[in-house]
Specification:
Elements lengths: L1 H8 E4 L2 E11 L3 H12 L4 E4 L7 H5 L19 H4 L27 H14 L4 E2 L4 E8 L7 E7 L4 E9 L5 E2 L11 E2 L14 E5 L3 H10 L5 E6 L6 H4 L11 H7 L5 E4 L5 E5 L5 E5 L18 H4 L11 E4 L3 E2 L36 E3 L17 H20 L5 E5 L3 H11 L1 H5 L4 E7 L5 E9 L6 H5 L7 E7 L31 E7 L5 H5 L12 E4 L11 H16 L8 H10 L5 H7 L9 H9 L20 H10 L18
Parallel strand pairs: 2-3, 2-7, 3-4, 7-17, 9-15, 10-11, 10-15, 11-12
Antiparallel strand pairs: 1-2, 5-6, 6-7, 8-16, 13-14, 18-20, 19-20, 19-21, 21-22, 22-23
Length: 675
């Protein structure tokens, strides 16, 4: 049987044998392993190719100084596992409780070696099919009308073994160092090779090229032993607490900002690195000049014959020579292994380090090729967390669900509820869902309304960028309108130049919820599914087109949106206005009264009381409702003023004599009032 299966997996193309799999994943980093987990849970045919001998090889080297900036919050005061993932930035999604990162490190900012161990265990304990020591060196296409996407993907490894796949998932991340070439760049040391021993920098003067976390991480390591450190970059420093983007400078690495602003010799400069030039003198010192000073000059003639900026401007900022120059400019995607037939093109502007992909994470050039993990960050670059584990673990799951529907006819998972559960369903998700919370403005919950708004279908964490394609991508229909639940920051609250600590920065009253600054839920209502044209023409910085109605749930200091008056009541009234219905919950007595006084019962009475569903009443429950002012007190009393023992027949006789509404067993313990 094994021989037969092996033979069946072998194909021949152009005389060369190759192995076939439905899905090929390149890279066994976090996103590759996450994709493998979902494919394995669905019993799909897949393989993961990893060039190293173990998963997560990137973390075996980076960050160089071994401290991750992804938080590991082990305690939240809650036992809800979904809520806790909001503050666990390192765990991948799985059913195995052993594979929570808090079991691998007690540090708030863990050591990178803990991540290496975690990824090794994730692959081993879940028995993921990873083929190690296999470097894919070439990828091309084979046209075939019978293939899933009209073509197969042909992969070749370093040993010239060939593989064939129907769908290709690229999870290689961005690992090629960004290098800027200018005169003298050969004297620059790279972040990937520079010494991490502070003693090697003792008494030296250092220039760092770059302004991101790797640059500040390097500076932080040698801050206490150098003469001074200067840092040069094209853009100004961006603080993550101001931009609300976790890829910007984090507080754990910003010691150099203190020494700069408190005048302790270190400093930050802005300038285009391509305009620089470095000259090395006879003593080995490195002098910074500008490229145009070297035009038409012989740099080998010696530094004495070259004009330096300080020769014309004697207070030039970088006139002091440096002992070392270190390049910390981040990484970019490796395009070199992809044949031109795949049309894998780099993005534009500040996204050029990523491949061009659609909001569905599928390549713009090739159907069936999906980019996962850090390399997919062009979808939400500088906006959300899609370039980091705590973001792309959810986008990877979204891609898997899209593939399940496209290739296997498995619709996007959903749950159908009666319309009476609409408010509760939204409140539950905005208070505990981790995917909405981490991938704010990118992933959204979708509520599809059934005919006459008697029920709804709930879809979780769908990419809003392909909302117009919802019916095609999910296998679900949206003929009767929909709600979209998303998390957002205030429109003008985030930015490198923003003061996020200004007085009265928070909004506390429901009527001003639309002015909320901090992350908060926003509900969009559409009477019909937006079109692709509406998606393209949506207002700048809006995640969605202009809706028929929109509701902001006011921001909350505790991110706990369960306050009856501030959060739940305004939401319920918004939903009622959109649906032209009454979403309140009622006691049985109220439903009984409505049955005789109204032509149409509220949904709660129709779907509960009339069907003999709900909670049975008791004297204690009734008394609680009376004391709270939710029910009239029809309890009969004797002449002494004492209530007789609970008797259903006696109570009903007394009520009939008083021409009052009969007290029936409580079908539902719910409030008739707005509370």
């Amino acid at each position: 049987l094994g021989l037969a299966l092996y033979t069946g997996s072998l194909r021949v193309v152009s005389g060369a044998a190759f192995l076939y799999h439905d899905y090929c994943i390149i890279g066994a980093g976090p996103s590759g392993l996450q994709a493998a987990y979902f494919l394995q849970q669905a019993s799909r045919d897949y393989v993961v190719f990893e060039r190293s001998h173990a998963p997560g090889s990137f973390f075996a080297l980076y960050p160089r100084h071994r401290k991750l900036i992804s938080i590991n919050k082990r305690y939240t005061g809650k036992s809800n596992s979904e809520f806790n993932l909001r503050h666990d930035w390192n765990s991948l999604l799985s059913h195995d409780r052993r594979l929570l990162f808090r079991r691998y490190s007690r540090d708030f900012f863990p050591d990178a070696d803990a991540m290496v161990r975690y990824l090794e265990d994730f692959a081993a304990l879940l028995k993921l099919r990873v083929q190690y020591n296999t470097a894919i060196v070439h990828v091309t296409l084979e046209r075939n009308a019978q293939a899933w996407n009209g073509h197969y993907f042909l992969l070749t490894d370093q040993d010239r073994q060939n593989y064939k796949c129907s769908s290709l998932l690229v999870a290689t991340g961005t690992w090629v160092p960004n290098v800027v070439n200018f005169p003298g760049s050969e004297y620059v040391e790279g972040y990937e090779t520079v010494s991490i021993s502070p003693e090697d920098f003792a008494g030296q003067t250092v220039l760092i090229l770059g302004r991101g976390n790797s640059a500040f991480e390097t500076a932080e390591n040698i801050l206490g032993v150098t003469n001074f450190i200067h840092m040069v970059s094209r853009s100004r420093v961006r603080l993550s607490w101001a931009t609300h983007y976790v890829g910007d400078l984090r507080a754990i690495n910003n010691g150099l900002l203190d020494t700069y602003q408190l005048k302790s010799l270190d400093g930050l400069l802005e300038g285009d690195l391509e305009d620089l030039a470095i000259i090395k003198d006879k003593k080995g010192k490195l002098h910074i000049t500008l490229r145009f000073y070297l035009e038409n000059r012989n740099t080998s003639a010696g530094i004495d014959s070259i004009t330096l900026p300080q020769d014309e401007l004697d207070n030039f900022a970088t006139r002091a020579p440096y002992d070392r120059v270190i390049r910390c400019l981040g990484w970019k995607f490796d395009f070199s292994i992809y044949n031109r037939s795949l049309r894998m093109m780099p993005g534009k502007g500040n996204k050029k380090k990523y491949p061009q992909i659609k909001p569905s994470y599928e390549s713009r050039g090739t159907r069936g090729l999906f980019v996962l993990g850090t390399a997919s960050h062009s979808v939400d670059f500088r906006k959300s967390a899609g370039g980091f584990i705590h973001g792309f673990r959810y986008t990877t799951r979204a891609v898997h669900r899209l593939l399940e529907n496209r290739h296997h006819g498995v619709p996007w998972p959903s749950t159908v509820y009666p319309i009476t559960q609409l408010t509760n369903s939204i409140i539950k998700r905005v208070n505990e869902a981790s995917g909405l919370y981490q991938m704010f403005s990118v992933l959204a919950d979708i509520i599809l309304l059934r005919e006459n708004a008697t029920a709804f279908e709930y879809l979780e964490e769908y990419p809003v960028g392909v909302l117009a394609e919802l019916e095609t991508q999910t296998g679900r229909k949206a003929p009767n309108g929909l709600f979209v639940i998303i998390m957002e920051y205030g429109r003008n609250f985030s930015g490198a130049d923003k003061d996020v600590f200004y007085y009265n920065r928070a909004v506390g009253e429901a009527q001003h919820a639309w002015q909320s600054n901090f992350l908060h839920p926003v509900i969009y209502y559409y009477k019909r599914l937006p079109s692709e044209r509406e998606m393209r023409l949506r207002p700048p910085d809006w995640p969605l087109p202009r809706p028929d109605a929109v509701h902001h749930i006011v921001e909350d200091f505790l991110t706990d949106w369960t306050a009856p008056n501030a959060h739940i009541l305004p939401l319920r009234r918004f939903l009622e206005n959109c649906l032209s219905t009454d979403l309140r919950n009622f006691f049985a007595e109220s439903c009984f009264l409505f049955a005789f006084t109204r032509q149409k019962l509220p949904p709660f009475c129709r779907q509960g009381y009339v069907r003999m569903q709900g909670l049975m009443g008791s004297e204690g429950l009734r008394r609680h409702a009376v004391d709270a002012g939710l029910l009239e007190d029809y309890t009969p009393t004797d002449f002494s003023g004492n209530s007789p023992p609970d008797s259903h027949e006696g109570s009903q006789d007394q009520l009939l004599r008083d021409h009052a509404i009969p007290v029936r067993p409580l079908q539902h313990l719910v409030n008739t009032k707005d509370e």
